[in-house]
Amino acid sequence: MRRLALFVATASALLGCGAAPHTRAAGAVSSLAVRPVTWNPAAVPVGKVSAVADVGTTVAVFGDGGATVLSSGAVVASDRSVTDWVDAQAIRGADGAPRWIVGVDGKGRLHYLRGMSSFEDVSSRYGLDGRRVRGVAMLDPTRVGFLLDQEIAVADGRRVTRYGGPVLASLLGGGGFGAGVATNTVTLFDAKMTARTFPLRGVTGVAVGPDGRLFATTRRALYASTEHGDLALVYDAGGETLHGLVASGDHVWFADGAELGVVDGESVAETRGAHVAPDARLASSPSGDVWVLSSGALQRFARAEPETALGVSWSATLAPIFARSCSSCHLPGGASGVDLSTAEGWQSERGAIHARVVENKTMPPEGHALMDADRAAIQAWTEHPAR
Asked: 158: helix, coil or strand?
């Protein structure tokens, strides 16, 4: 077992040191528009939910009734073999697949959604037999981190390496980094397993953005790493109301009382009237949406999108086509290297999509069907710039 190389960094811009510009009262927080996302249109009972993970239009909900799998909103499987789920994530598969949905049970065993039908114990495939998994996170497109009782294990597709170091209460990852929380301390480690520890009194949560930027919360304040390698204040809630933090797709979400917020660079936006529960936990989605879990109930929210020139949002028109024909290669970290899981991704690749899908018909590749009506919808979207 190797050990993390560790050094101590700092947390700066603490409350009381020029906090006013970072508050709602100072006018530094803009308005955030969100919309609820219907993920279970038939309202099929899923029990008391403890964790959730999704890939494209596939959603796995984990709770005291077992695991329920939905595809495009329809229930396709229910596995009641495990009922004590504690965590779930979408990670790189042990077979090299860009994404597996996995769940962690109360005994610390890792289970993989196989064939959209049931969950299989895959602890041994990651070299974790006999070790209790307490958390799991994608560190980058090829590395998966596992939080164990006294160490961190990292699987890179070829081997699993275990590292001793700080005892963490949680493990998150993104942008090539992993991060975790201990009492009054945040730890961030890179691909070389060099760790930086930030003292932060009362720290409650941590997240790593897609660019590797570190975020951390106390009950009152949200901090983010700077180019100088320290933590600086981004948002002061004015009271002990912060209770959630997660990096989801390209967004970093937080929960503040009954509201949801998003951090974009140094800017903060927050809802008015989201009505989330004051004890809610947040979970991530590759789409950039945020899952909200509270008292066994599950909600999903997305940032509100502008309408397209056809008068229908991307999520309603093209997201189902993406799920059917494109998601196997074009999810974040997918085999193609081009992320088309969001409206922004399609917008940035609009010309290439038109050329390859509409004109040359070289995409999707052989073996991935695309109905004529779907191709026509893509053509209409690419030929009409958004209003």
From this structure: coil
> Are 199 and 231 in contact, with CB atoms under 8 Å apart?
no
Question: What is the sign, positive or negative, of the torsion defined by CA atoms of 218, 223, 225, 227?
Answer: negative
Q: Report how far apart the first and last C-alpha atoms of the chain are (Å, whole number).
A: 57
Per-residue confidence (pLDDT) for residue 5, from 0 to 100: 59
* Cβ-contact 136, 94 below 8 angstroms: no
Q: Which two tokens stand for residue 186?
A: 């945040």
- Quote the pLDDT of residue 264: 87
SS3 content of the chain, % helix, strand, coil (to 5): 15, 40, 45
Top-confidence range, 22-26, 104-108, 249-253:
104-108
pLDDT score, position 310: 38
Q: Which helix (H) or strand (E) holds 152?
A: strand 151-155
* Inter-residue long-range contacts of 107-112, CB under 8 Å, 24+ positions, other chains counted: 107/132, 108/132, 108/133, 108/134, 109/133, 110/136, 110/146, 111/82
Nearest to 105 by CA among 126, 87, 129, 127: 87
Q: Which of 343, 345, 348 is nearest to 332 (CA)?
A: 345
DSSP secondary structure letters along 82-98: ---EEEEEEE--TTS-S
Is the pLDDT at 8 greater than 80, yes or no?
A: no
Contact partners, residue 299, CB within 8 Å, separation at least 6? 36, 276, 291, 292
Ranges of beta strands (E only) in 201-338 are 205-208, 214-217, 221-225, 231-236, 242-248, 251-256, 259-264, 267-270, 281-284, 290-294, 297-303
Specify whether the CB–CB gap between 145 and 171 falls below 8 A: yes
- Give the tens place of pLDDT for each residue, 159-209: 999 998 778 999 999 999 999 999 999 999 988 888 899 999 999 999 999
Please state the φ and ψ torsions of residue 127, each to the nearest 5 degrees.
Answer: 70, 30
Distance CA 360, CA 145 (A): 41
Mean local confidence (pLDDT), 143-151:
93
**Which residue segments constitute the domains of the chain, with CATH numbers given?**
2-303 (2.130.10.10), 314-383 (no CATH)
Cα-based torsion angle of the residue sequence 271, 277, 283, 289 in order, rounded to the nearest 10 degrees: -30
